[in-house]
Amino acid sequence: MKIAINEYTSPTAKGFLLINPGGPGASGVDFVRDSYDYIGTDALKAKYNFVGFDPRGTGASSPIKCLDAAGTDQLLYEDNGFAIGSAQDLASERAQIANFVAACKKNTGDVLGFVDTVSAARDLDVIRSALRQTKLDYLGFSYGTFLGATYAALYPKNVGRFVLDGAIDPRVTDAQQSLNQLSGFDLALTNFATWCLKQANCPLDGTVTQARAQISGVLRSFEGNSMPTDTSRRLTLPGLYTGLIMGLYSNDYWQYVLQAFNEVDNGTGSTFLKLADFYNDRATDGTYSTNTLEANIAINCLDSRQPADAASMNAQNKLLVAKSSVFGRYWQNGAITCAKWPFPVAKRPTSYAAVGSPTIMVVGTTGDPATPYQQAVDLAHKVLAKGFLVTFKGEGHTAYGRSNSCISKAVDNWLVSGKLPKTEPKC
């Protein structure tokens, strides 16, 4: 197993801060290289050498390889044309996933069965030892919080200063996680609609409830249909849906979602397609710049799976549709993705309390669509034996580096000086 590591050094720094940007499947090497100037303050850089690493299966660390670019395009952007939820639609989804899984097995080999999060957490301790650190200092975003919590569960006495931003509750089942995330994006959609209705050029009108219904109408109008863009490609329902989800990850993107809906009103899907391509790491030449999709599915399928029998999926689908009148229709049948994965689910820790570790800082955002805020609350107050919650009262996925000085100060003071605020801040 090859693990890619990249270190960004400071002339005064003596310690090392390992950083994971999330995913699962995102490259820590790329993140630290491309975002070094925006991570933390000068004080943080003076204390630490930043270390980015690619967890096994991602980036340059024995990467998962599945479909070629054309096959990935078909998987991500092609509309099968069948009625949502019909027997033909379900059969088509199963066939697509079966083709994907077969390609992963053929093009990756047996390493496909060893990219689970517990194995990646053990790699973290190898990195800690290689850096000659008695304690691991760590900053994890999104999925990186799950990786960090797993490390703390396995090696509590090796935990140094940990910050987990955009937290995942490691106790939550895959099925419940799907419901939680759907709820988060549904809230983000409501917040976007509320904001949009206040803008002079918003294509939505009426109440927030009516605006949500209009968005739902746009999605339904694309079922079995497509729209031209400023390229040779057409915007299909999968591209529209993915582009909308991408635009809800942060309120910084809302302006582009507004623009995209205006374009759709005028008969073009260019901005939605660009948002979808950005989400999928698809370049304008048709290639994919990362293997995040493949690694994401491979890691998730080894970590946990939903029951894939018909009764369980039907029950889950009813919950999803009830949870979101806009997105639930398109969130169904998620269990299919991992149902035929060729390797078993990896064994996980029985407890994530990390008894024996020092305090672990958890950062949560009240409007986080991808990792809803309640998971941060639960990780800090119900899971970890010693958790400390920092709350950003705002929109978007994760907080540190994109929110405000209150968050930055709390995180930097903890990482640099080991000092916590007197009370859990709500910024």
Secondary structure layout:
Elements: E1 4-8, E2 15-20, H1 28-35, H2 42-47, E3 48-54, H3 69-77, H4 87-108, H5 117-130, E4 136-141, H6 143-154, E5 159-165, H7 174-196, H8 208-221, E6 227-228, E7 234-235, H9 237-247, H10 254-265, H11 270-280, H12 292-303, H13 310-323, H14 336-339, E8 360-367, H15 373-383, E9 387-395, H16 405-417
Parallel strand pairs: 2-3, 2-4, 4-5, 5-8, 8-9
Antiparallel strand pairs: 1-3, 6-7
Helix pairs in contact: 5-6, 7-8, 7-13, 9-11, 10-11
Characterization of the model:
Helix 5 (117-130) packs across helix 6 (143-154), helix 7 (174-196) runs parallel beside helix 13 (310-323) and helix 10 packs across helix 11. The strands form two sheets. Strands 1-3-2-4-5-8-9 form a seven-stranded mixed beta sheet, with helices on both faces. Strands 6-7 form a two-stranded antiparallel sheet. It has two domains: 4-61 and 127-170 and 352-417, Rossmann fold, CATH 3.40.50; 65-114 and 178-347, no CATH class. It is 46% helix and 12% strand. The model has no long low-confidence stretch (mean pLDDT 95). The chain is built from 16 helices and nine strands. With 427 residues, it is α/β, with parallel strands linked by helices.
Could you give a short description of this structure?
The protein is of the alpha/beta class. The protein has helices at 28-35, 42-47, 69-77, 87-108, 117-130, 143-154, 174-196, 208-221, 237-247, 254-265, 270-280, 292-303, 310-323, 336-339, 373-383, 405-417; strands at residues 4-8, 15-20, 48-54, 136-141, 159-165, 227-228, 234-235, 360-367, 387-395. The protein has two domains: 4-61 and 127-170 and 352-417, Alpha/Beta hydrolase fold, catalytic domain (Rossmann fold, 3-Layer(aba) Sandwich); 65-114 and 178-347, no CATH class.
